[in-house]
Amino acid sequence: MPVPEFVRELRAHIGHGPLWMSGVTAVILDGEGRVLLTHRSDNRRWALVAGIVEPGEEPADAAVREAWEEVGLRILPERLAGVGVDPPAVYPNGDQVQYLNLTFRCRVLSGEARVNDDESLAVGWFAVDALPDDLGAHQRRHLAWALADEERAQFSLTASTPGAADDHDAGSGA
Which residues are in the Nudix hydrolase domain (predicted)? Predict the structure, then answer.
């Protein structure tokens, strides 16, 4: 899997230690309401199209770029669906990472979904009520945000956050 040069440079200084990154998830839906998933080559699990935001890159542009690189589709992000923190992860090479993730609901403009790089073993369109069992909880959260009939982005607010009101509206925001 190609590691962005800026990450390679950071890793030269911090080794495999935890790295806080900005990421995007593109929840790509087709005209039948199915969602596109990739079968990842690193962990052999199904996942939404996702990736790292490059320095100076707009998050929506990152979602478009990742969809093209990973699955060969031209997409249009329709809205920011959610903002949240994904659980910490460790890549096969030992690199530790955690992502602040921006989730976009997207539609296809052109192309046929295909494996377009070495990050995926397969791609497939899935009905939202027939998702693979190994689709992770945070992936399902991103999907739920994108499927919500909301005009605003979803987010999580934990009650343990200092200064949080007891009656906050967790799960949604402007």
Answer: 19-148
Percent of residues, the chain, with pLDDT higher than 70: 90
Distance CA 6, CA 14 (A): 13
What is the model's pLDDT at position 170? 45
Question: Is the distance from CB of 103 to CB of 83 less than 8 angstroms?
Answer: yes
What is the separation of C-alpha 70 from the centre of its chain, rounded to a whole number of angstroms?
Answer: 12
Nearest-5° Cα angle at 25, 20 to 29: 175
Question: Which runs of consecutive H residues, i.e. helices, occur in the chain?
Answer: 5-14, 59-71, 137-147
Mean pLDDT of the chain: 90
**Domain residue spans of the chain:** 23-148
Query: 66 with 26: CB under 8 angstroms?
Result: yes
Report the CATH fold assignment for 23-148.
Answer: Nucleoside Triphosphate Pyrophosphohydrolase (3.90.79)
Q: Which residue has the tokens 């343990």?
A: 160
Report pLDDT for 160. 67
